[in-house]
Design goal:
The structure holds five protein chains of five kinds.
Chain A: E1 8-17, E2 20-30, E3 35-40, H1 46-53, E4 62-70, E5 73-74, H2 80-86, E6 91-94, H3 108-118, H4 123-136, H5 153-167, E7 171-175, H6 183-199, E8 203-207, H7 211-217, E9 220-225, E10 228-234, H8 235-240, H9 245-253
Chain B: H1 8-17, H2 21-49, H3 54-59, H4 65-75, H5 81-93, H6 107-142, H7 147-161, H8 164-178, H9 192-195, E1 199-200, H10 205-211, H11 215-251, H12 255-262, H13 267-302, H14 310-319, H15 323-351
Helix pairs in contact in B: 2-5, 2-15, 6-7, 6-11, 6-13, 6-14, 7-11, 8-11, 10-11, 11-13, 13-14, 13-15, 14-15
Chain C: E1 6-15, E2 18-28, E3 35-39, H1 45-52, E4 60-65, E5 68-69, H2 75-84, E6 85-88, H3 92-95, H4 102-112, H5 120-130, H6 147-160, E7 165-169, H7 177-193, E8 197-202, H8 205-211, E9 214-219, E10 222-228, H9 229-234, H10 239-247, E11 295-296, H11 304-315
Parallel strand pairs in C: 3-8, 3-9, 6-7, 7-8
Antiparallel strand pairs in C: 1-2, 1-4, 4-5, 9-10, 10-11
Helix pairs in contact in C: 4-5, 4-6, 5-6, 6-7
The chains are: A alpha/beta, B mainly alpha, C alpha/beta, D alpha+beta, E mainly alpha.
Bound molecules: adenosine-5'-triphosphate (2 copies) and magnesium ion (2 copies).
Chain lengths: 265, 358, 316, 502, 289
């Protein structure tokens, strides 16, 4: 596959529940090493769009139309089998509540092993991949002996990312990955996302509502409201000089310390 | 314990402290003891409230006044109530539950014979219930809201709703007498007592036969066990299927299941390997409750299948207002209930690490 | 001289064996402005709020409202002081009885505040107006409202009791950014127009800056820094405060190259922050006391100079 | 572990009994279900033949009585040994009866008239009585009359020895294994030295299998899993009579169901009310609804016992209504009657249902209460007459084949009620009851007439009771054997030694 | 965060009726049972047979045009008695559920809200009653009072309330930590008022669903009690009693046992089905997905 061709290409995606359109994404592409953020207020259809892109809406009552192509494979209307082959190894998900998204009855090591085996990775190779991924997310390997409720939120979130990394996912979709975390930890995870994008050329699609945070990590921003995209473009352009009043309202509302401030130049 | 704290130090501490397990266990045991004590007192009070005269039962329906007086004396019925309670409780402490009025045997030895038989029956019914109900529940959850699910739901509802005594009669008539597939009643074929005598350790025939390698009796016992066990299993099977289904469906709405799907696991794999464990807790809790319930309910079934268990014993005790026996049965059932609950608590702790936090 | 509106004196809060807040003191004089309690998750902020509201008995120490120990008040005296301090919780959904209409919820508050039955409808309308809600909401139930509306109702209920102090536990963190801004504006307004002081519990320092004059920083159950909000933000002296301040996302700030918190040895008895602190040494095995004004509890408080150096280290 | 003893080889007679079998191993005090086993383990001096209404020899070959009926001399067989090996002689008989009397448990009262026992020689036993009774009948009792080896335990405690499921009888079988509470509770094996001898066509072992459910027992019998079922429903019995490979027997028993009327207090103290209730009780309808489980009881005494005869009241609803009206009961003053009966007894329930329905039609409200026996009895005996019921429903049967039991227990007046739950106080009845034992002992024909008079007096004149019906024994058994005779004097007993296999 | 607004129960019910055929059928079956119970005196073929009348001459007749379900040992029409039996069973179910849920919910709410030793004491008592076999308690009551419908009701209720107590206790102990309870306390509401006005109403939903699920169980238990001679007594028409009376003639007169047995099955089944349907309909999570 061509390095320049996007990992994710969405065109005319529209999701309806019982005839009501709750989310639409006319056009979106995420390239390797790129972080794209979707922002908007609650109910604007951010999560729905993300879920549809991962093909996780297939079994629900949602009507999905349009096209979502991940590494050249069409997701919309794809069979369970195709989707399964994409999931994990090509695209992965990181959810908001870190501990709740990990199985409570399984040690983390077992979970990651299972996932690798599921994708046909042999035992020996699995061990290598796991320690590689754990290094990448800066996690101590002894965490693998623990259950989800025995690790901190930041650790759990980093582990979820490690899962995606070790399966080799090219596209990682993250739904508000830091909003359940403490401020100090939040920054760790953001840094990790940025670093993986740069070092491993992972493509990221991140849902967020904190514009300050978005301004720090995203290359591209999509602003959504009531299921529609109101503004999209490079982060600097959209947040630096918003054209749509809704974006402006969002920006104004952010309770933020003045840029720079203590400890920053 | 702190789990929300975001740095590993606190986590370490969590781990070191988690052997609070012993304390959890002690607490549960204490609860159990309180419950058993409560049951003992309640039983005693109720037993003393029964009108009529224990002495009449003891001395026989046509006893003479002198015989009655002797019986009263012997049973200590003229003692003041607290003294009687004291006698009863101190007897309990010595493992003495008194003497049954209708079998004239120590209640302990009666129960020692009847309880294993019932445990054999109800135990195998429970195993059947899990073996049948659990897969049914999983299948229903896998195909939730489709036709298969509907069939399982309806079927398990029928099992829960059918009156067991009626089911027992029908099954016996159809499968034994009409079709001749199974023996009508009994524990095993008594002819085998002469050809391959059984050495008794636990009074649970199937178990004794198994550990002594007495295959003919084992086979015969299993053959005899099928029908009554199936009948007794009807209710728990239905309940297990429904509970499993509901718990799995609920679990499937948890975040971690979405995560597992996103990792590319198959739906059935997710159900069996990922959802079943966290979902099994309510099913287990229910099993413990049902176990005791079924033990009593076997009153209705055991008589029909000649099963010499606690059900038959209870029915006899009830018929003859055999106070010591009734008290003994009550106590034993309460103990079974409490033990089953404890066992479930422990299993849950083993299965679901979340419960290990106090 | 009037008594301080709230005086928390050396309280220790604990759940079973777990101490959530150690030896905490705080005095809030009347008219002195509002106070923010910041700190990360599990640092004991909510526990403190519950103690101040009388919902959690301190294991040690006492809490005085207008000079009276609230732990000893009974009967009508207790009911009176209770109304003086009113809570607003994080989640409006949780904070409103799902089975009651908004009117009933506010009515109950007014009844407890001693408003006569016939005056209540008018008062309810006034209250709703106060929090920018339409009067026709009275017949609705919480699930028929948006999150922002629910939070307004919760504030209205608190106001119904005519309190002197509002205890706000993360009042906006469940809300959308735009809604958050409006709630903050509302709080700002009622604080000034009704002369109510706020005790704001948050992990969002930006919010503290906007609403309060004083800030107390908690870490793991210990008070690590206390002083004027402006000063703490500008020149934090405790290493934790500094990290906290610098971790708060700001528009266009570059991402610092922070390493994950080191998996250091358990803190033991010493300074709670010892395991994470880059400056920790043997001296830190003794719990530091809160000293100075503005106060800091650290054996190695950062000077402005050291701070600059550290800041550069941390962010590049 | 303990190994369950293998069953004796050879053919086994399997008795499906509906209750637990043994509660008491001591033959002196045994007074319950275990009689079905005891009768095969132990023997008494005589046995009553209900068909011939005659007392037959058993351990005694012959006996004589003095003219005043107060001295009875029995001659014993001399070829009998106990299962313990000891030879049966007059001393053994004396010792066992004296022990039974001394323990005074169970039915020991039957020996009350005996004042002394002499043993002039090893085969002769002489009983001296305080008052005359038919001692040959007493000696045939199914309870308390067994002759056993009092030295079975040697110097040890005999009662404790019996408790270990041992027997010391002279009967054809001896205990093999006993497992309390087990399905096959009891197994007996042949006693090789039995004086009656053994042929190839006899069962060498007997098993008692506890089978509470009738339908289960019947299905077991059809599959040849059991040889004998003591109790069937009439419908199954009917089915059994036409089933190949199954034999049946139907015998009317000595056990009858009585409705005892409260003659002392309450509305039934008025004899018109009692008569009315008697006339509203249609025993024929009850018997027909029982579909063959019951036989008509024309009087208190069942056929097969001395003194039987017709002492019944014809049902007549019109007369009954008139009687009630006379007694002052009508729509304005409805009569309410309370009745107690045995909880769980379906046949009694059926009578109560039918009575309730008939009474309702006559404007009488019946308040029927099923109760456990001891509760029912305690209430019947209560010192406060207002606590007592108006109608007491119970079964009665004699301990040995003599009708006195009904009258001495149920209708003799007494200061505190015991079994006389009709609370009858009739001096002429008391006088008759006092003289009847003697008459039976010395002038049986006279006794028969007296009994009939007495029945009429109680049932018709005093209207103190309605004998509702006689229980009919309906048995089904494997056609593998012949020689089964249902002897109502020994309820439910199968004398297995008498059977011959085909 | 859930983004769904809970849909009002009424709408959910209506939706349920449209979707869930078995639940609908169960509801219809129940309606028929209830109608049979209410209208028994009017529509039963031999109304007198439902109470005291007997016809010994017509006993044990098989099903025929005159007696669709045959007659019993004293010649009563079984169809009539099955219909009258519905009255008894439904009455027992209603009475038991009202009694036990009232007691259970009250105790459970107090326990759940109070926590601490109050909860410990109440819940241990609850456990004792849970551990105490229902059958034996019923026996004791049947002997102390007298067998009959009333006794059966008290006996079943005595062993049934702990379930509601547990349910309400766990609901209340979650509610106790809800912020609206804290808010109420901060307003100075007295304890009993909080329990009565906030905790109780909010603990009811799971109980209501459970009630419907339990109705079937109560009917089965009542039948079992009657079957053992501890429940309803002659001449009351009661299904369990009818089964018991006909049991020994199962191989010969099957109809005596079978029709009341089917009635028990049908009613219990319908209640269970309906309860399950209700549970799903009222579960807000179902709509959330
Ligand atoms: N299963 C469903 N059925 C019907 N409507 C749904 C369903 N799932 C989501 N919606 C609706 O779709 C809309 C978008 O929801 P979505 O969760 O994508 O919003 P969001 O932008 O992620 O909000 P938040 O910031 O609160 O997570 C909402 O109005 C929601 O009510
Ligand atoms: N009811 C409780 N029982 C036991 N421990 C508790 C309880 N409530 C809180 N804790 C513990 O007390 C400590 C302080 O909790 P608190 O809720 O006060 O923290 P917080 O600062 O409000 O955190 P957050 O920002 O997550 O709300 C934590 O370690 C927490 O686990
Ligand atoms: Mg979302
Ligand atoms: Mg908090």
């Amino acid at each position: 596959m061509n390095a320049a061709s996007p990992v994710l290409q969405v065109t005319g995606l529209s999701i309806q529940y019982g005839g009501r359109r709750v989310s639409s994404l006319p056009d979106l592409s995420v390239a390797r090493g790129e972080v794209v953020a979707i922002v908007g207020e609650s109910g604007s259809g951010k999560s729905t769009a993300l879920t549809a892109i991962l093909g996780l809406l297939a079994e629900t009552s949602a009507d999905v139309s349009g096209s979502v192509s991940v590494l050249g494979t069409e997701v919309v209307g794809a069979s369970e089998r195709t989707l399964r082959s994409l999931r994990g190894s090509e695209m992965a998900l990181v959810m908001q509540s870190p501990q709740a998204s990990l199985n409570p009855t399984m040690r983390l090591g077992r979970l990651i092993h299972r996932a690798l085996r599921r994708h046909g990775v042999g035992k020996a190779e699995a061990a290598g991949r796991i320690s590689d991924a754990m290094t990448a997310v800066r996690l101590d390997e002894q965490i693998l002996d623990r259950y989800a409720h025995e690790v901190s939120g930041g650790q759990a979130q980093r582990f979820a990312i490690a899962l995606a990394v070790c399966l080799g996912a090219q596209l990682i979709a993250a739904d508000e990955p830091t909003s359940a975390l403490d401020a100090t930890v939040q920054l760790e995870v953001l840094t990790l996302i940025r670093r993986l994008a740069e070092e491993r050329r992972t493509a990221w699609l991140v849902v967020a509502h904190d514009l300050a945070m978005v301004s720090m990590i995203a290359d591209h921003v999509i602003v959504m409201r009531d299921g529609e995209v109101v503004e999209t473009g490079p982060t600097r352009a959209v947040l630096g000089d918003p054209t749509h009043e809704y974006t402006r309202a969002l920006l104004d509302a952010v309770p933020t310390l003045p840029a720079g401030g203590v400890g920053h130049v | 314990m702190t789990t929300a704290t975001a740095h590993p130090v606190a986590v370490r501490r969590t781990r070191r402290r988690s052997p609070g397990l012993g304390r959890v266990l002690l607490r549960r045991l204490a609860h159990a003891a309180v419950v058993v004590a409560g049951v003992v007192c309640l039983t005693f009070v109720i037993a003393r409230q029964l009108p009529g005269d224990e002495a009449v039962t003891a001395a026989g329906a046509r006893a003479t006044p002198e015989q009655l007086a002797a019986a009263r004396e012997r049973l200590g019925l003229d003692d003041p109530l607290p003294l009687q309670l004291w006698h009863y409780v101190s007897g309990l402490a010595r493992g003495d539950l008194g003497t049954s009025l209708h079998t004239r045997q120590p209640v302990v030895s009666d129960l020692g014979r009847a309880l294993p038989a019932s445990l054999e029956l109800v135990g195998s019914a429970m195993v059947l219930a899990v073996l049948i109900g659990l897969p049914l529940g999983v299948i229903a959850a896998r195909f939730a809201r489709r036709r298969t699910d509907l069939a399982v739901r309806t079927g398990s509802m029928l099992l829960v709703s059918v009156p067991v005594f009626w089911l027992a009669l029908a099954v016996q008539l159809l499968l034994s007498t009409k079709l001749g597939w199974f023996p009508v009643a009994g524990e095993y074929d008594r002819v085998l007592d002469s050809t391959s005598p059984l050495t008794v350790y636990t009074n649970i025939t199937a178990f004794d036969a198994l550990i002594t390698g007495n295959w003919p009796i084992l086979l015969s016992t299993l053959h005899h066990l099928v029908l009554p066990a199936l009948v007794v299993a009807a209710y728990p099977t239905g309940v297990v299927a429904q509970m499993t289904r509901a718990a799995l469906i609920e679990e499937s709405q948890q975040d971690h299941v979405r995560m597992e799907r996103a990792l590319g696991f198959r739906p059935l794999e997710i159900l069996l390997r990922f959802s079943l464990r966290p979902a099994i807790s309510p099913v287990l809790t229910l099993l413990a409750l049902i176990f005791a319930y079924t033990l009593v309910n076997s009153v209705l079934v055991e008589a029909i299948f000649n099963w010499p268990g606690i059900g038959t014993y209870t029915a006899d005790a009830i018929r003859s207002v055999d106070t010591p026996a009734i008290a003994g049965v009550t106590l034993v059932i309460a103990l079974v209930y409490v033990t089953a609950n404890l066992a479930v608590d422990l299993t849950q702790i083993a299965i679901d690490p979340r419960t290990r936090k106090s | 001289m009037s008594e301080p509106i709230l005086a928390v004196r050396d309280i220790t809060l604990a759940y079973g064996h777990h101490v959530a807040l150690h030896d905490f003191s705080l005095v809030l004089e009347r008219g002195e402005g509002s106070v923010a309690i910041v700190g990360e998750s599990g640092s004991g902020k909510t526990s403190l709020a519950r103690a101040v509201l009388g919902l959690l008995q301190p294991r040690e120490g006492r809490i005085e409202v207008d000079g009276a120990d609230i732990g000893r008040l009974r009967g009508s005296a207790a009911r009176t002081w209770r109304r003086r301090i009113q809570p607003v919780f994080q989640d409006g959904q949780e904070a409103l009885d799902p089975r009651r209409t908004i009117g009933a919820t506010l009515g109950e508050a007014l009844r407890m505040a001693g408003t006569a039955r016939r005056d209540r409808p008018a008062r309810i309308e006034e209250l709703l107006d106060e929090v920018d809600l339409r009067p026709d909401l009275v017949r609705r139930r919480p699930h028929e409202l948006s999150g922002g509306q629910r939070q307004r109702v919760a504030i209205a209920r608190a106001l119904a009791a005519s309190p002197d102090l509002l205890v706000l536990d993360e009042p906006t963190s469940a809300l959308d950014v735009t809604v958050q801004a409006r709630i903050v504006a509302l709080l700002e307004r009622v604080a000034t127009t009704q002369q109510i002081q706020l005790m704001l519990i948050t992990h969002n320092i930006a919010l503290a800056q906007r609403l309060t004059r004083h800030t107390v920083v908690l870490f793991n159950g210990h008070q690590v820094e206390a002083g004027p909000t402006e000063e703490i933000l500008r020149a934090p002296r405790h290493p934790y405060t500094r990290t906290l301040v610098s971790s708060t996302p700001r528009l266009w700030a570059p991402l610092p190259k922070v390493a994950p918190a080191p998996p250091a040895a358990p803190a033991g008895d010493g300074c709670a922050y010892r395991s994470r602190c880059p400056h920790a040494d043997d001296a830190c095995s003794v719990v530091p006391a809160l000293v100075g004004s503005p106060g800091v509890a650290c054996h190695h408080p950062l000077t402005t100079l050291a701070l600059d150096a550290a800041g550069r280290n941390g962010s590049h | 572990g303990t190994t369950r003893a293998p069953s004796s080889a050879g053919s086994t007679f399997t008795y499906a009994f509906h209750l637990n079998v043994v509660t008491e191993w001591d033959p002196a005090v045994s007074y319950s279900n275990e009689s079905i086993a005891m009768a095969n383990l132990y023997e008494s001096l005589t046995r009553y033949d209900a068909a011939a209404k005659k007392v037959e020899p058993l351990l005694a070959t012959s006996w004589t009585k003095s003219a005043d009926g107060r001295r009875w001399t029995f001659t014993l067989r001399d070829d009998v040994t106990f299962h313990t090996g000891r030879k049966l002689d007059s001393t053994a008989v004396k010792e066992s009866i004296e022990r039974t009397k001394k323990l005074a448990g169970g039915a020991a009262y039957i020996w009350d008239p005996v004042s002394s026992i002499e043993t002039p020689d090893p085969t002769t036993v002489v009983f001296d009585l305080a008052y005359p009774v038919a001692l040959d009948l007493v000696a045939s009792s199914g309870y308390g009359a067994y002759v056993y080896d009092t030295q079975a335990a040697g110097t040890g405690d005999l009662a404790a020895w019996f408790k270990k499921a041992k027997d010391a009888g002279t009967g054809p079988y001896t205990v093999d294994t006993w497992t309390a509470g087990a399905e096959t509770e009891l197994r007996l094996k042949a006693y090789d030295d039995y004086w009656g001898g053994w042929t190839d066509q006899q069962y060498r072992a007997v098993e008692f299998r506890v089978t509470p459910e009738v339908t289960t027992a019947w299905q077991l019998l059809q599959r040849d899993d059991v040889s004998f079922v003591d109790r069937l429903t009439p419908q199954i019995f009917e089915q059994a009579t036409t089933t190949k490979g199954v034999g049946t027997s139907e015998t009317s028993s000595f056990q009858n169901l009585l409705a005892l009327y409260n003659t002392a207090s309450g509305p039934m103290a008025d004899i018109r009310v009692r008569r009315a209730i008697q006339m509203l009780t249609d025993t024929k309808a009850i018997i027909s609804a029982l579909h063959g489980a019951a036989a008509p009881a024309d009087g208190l005494i069942p056929p097969g016992l001395i003194g039987e005869g017709d002492a019944s009241v014809k049902p007549d609803a019109t007369v009954a209504k008139k009687l009630l009206a006379d007694a002052g009961y009508d729509a304005g003053h409805p009569l309410r009657l309370s009745l107690t009966y045995a909880q769980g007894d379906k046949d009694q329930g059926l009578y109560v249902t039918l009575l309730g329905s008939a009474l309702k039609a006559a404007g009488v409200q019946l308040d029927a209460r099923p109760m456990q026996w001891d509760a029912q009895w305690t209430r019947g005996k209560s010192a406060d007459p207002s606590q007592r019921q108006d109608i007491f429903v119970m079964y009665w049967y004699p301990d040995y084949a003599d009708p006195l039991s009904w009258f001495a227990n149920l209708f003799k007046s007494a200061k505190d009620p015991y079994f006389n739950l009709a609370y009858l106080e009739d001096a002429s009845v008391d006088a008759s009851v006092a003289s009847l034992p003697k008459e039976t002992a010395i002038a049986p024909a006279q006794a028969a007439r007296s009994y009939l008079d007495l029945q009429r007096r109680i049932v018709v004149d005093d209207a103190a009771v309605t004998p509702l019906y006689l229980i009919k024994y309906q048995r089904a058994y494997s056609a593998d054997f012949t020689g089964y005779v249902d002897n109502p004097a020994y309820p439910n007993v199968v004398f297995v030694h008498d059977l011959r296999t085909k | 965060m859930s983004t769904t607004l809970p849909i009002p129960a009424r709408r959910r019910l209506r939706r349920l009726a449209g979707q869930d055929l078995p639940t609908l059928l169960a509801a219809v079956a129940l309606l028929i049972v209830v109608a049979a119970a209410l209208l028994a005196p009017l529509v039963a073929p031999y109304p007198a047979d439902g109470t005291t009348a007997t016809h010994p001459a017509a006993s044990l007749l098989g099903p025929s045009g005159a007696h669709w379900m045959g007659t019993d040992a004293v010649g009563r029409d079984i169809l009539t008695r099955v219909m009258y039996g519905a009255r008894t069973s439904l009455f027992i179910a209603a009475a038991v559920l009202v009694l036990s849920s009232t007691v259970g919910v009250l105790l459970g709410c107090v326990a759940g809200y109070s926590g601490g030793w109050v909860s410990d004491v109440i819940m241990r008592v609850t456990d004792v009653f849970l551990a105490f076999p229902a059958l034996l308690l019923s026996l004791a009551l049947a002997v102390i009072l007298r067998p009959g419908v009333g006794t059966a009701i008290i006996a079943i209720a005595a062993t049934w309330w702990p379930w509601y107590a547990r349910l309400a206790c766990s609901a209340a102990s979650t509610i106790r930590h809800r912020a609206y309870i804290d808010s109420a306390r901060c307003l100075g509401l007295p304890r009993w008022r909080i329990v009565a006005e906030h905790v109780l109403p909010n603990s009811l939903t799971p109980v209501i669903v459970q009630l419907s699920l339990d109705a079937g169980g109560v009917i089965l238990t009542a039948a079992a009690l009657s079957y053992l001679g501890l429940g309803a007594v002659e001449p009351t028409s009661e299904w369990g009693l009818m089964v018991q009376q006909g049991q020994s003639s199962f191989t010969t007169e099957w109809w005596i046992v079978t029709f009341p047995g089917l009635a028990i099955l049908l009613t219990a089944f319908s209640f269970n089905m309906l309860g399950e349907g209700l549970r799903q309909a009222l579960d807000p999570r179902k709509v959330a997905r």
